[in-house]
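Re: that backbone. Tokens:
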């Protein structure tokens, strides 16, 4: 009897959808060296945001300064863009996205930098 229950439990586990934790998006800093640096004396160096992906949901782990979020395809074409206010920590992306894209977070402070990482849908 134990053997049968073990086999049944094994088959049940195969079909169970385990909720995976959101994936941390590894971000890198891009600085456009062709434009003059615009100093912002009220702020220190830009701090890298901590961002996670769970399917089509992007989550910031804390309140941030506000970004323009862009989803960019392999041809460097922006396929989705949205302003993310500092008070929002969750962004819902279109469910029609499929494949690998570059995610860009552009600070809304007029600086010549952005953070980027890769997401897969």
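Recovered sequence:
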């Amino acid at each position: 009897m134990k053997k049968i229950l073990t086999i049944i439990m094994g088959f049940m586990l195969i079909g169970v959808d385990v909720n995976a934790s959101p994936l941390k998006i590894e971000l890198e800093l891009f600085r456009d060296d062709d434009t003059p640096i615009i100093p912002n004396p009220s702020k220190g160096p830009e701090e890298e945001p901590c961002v996670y992906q769970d399917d089509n949901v992007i989550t910031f782990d804390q309140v941030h300064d506000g970004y323009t979020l862009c989803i960019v395809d392999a041809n460097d074409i922006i396929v989705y863009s949205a302003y993310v206010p500092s008070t929002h920590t969750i962004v819902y992306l279109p469910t029609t996205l499929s494949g690998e894209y570059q995610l860009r977070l552009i600070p809304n402070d007029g600086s010549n930098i952005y953070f980027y990482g890769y997401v897969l849908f």
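The radius of gyration is 20 Å. The beta strands are 23-25, 28-31, 51-54, 57-60, 67-72, 78-84, 90-92, 100-107, 113-120.
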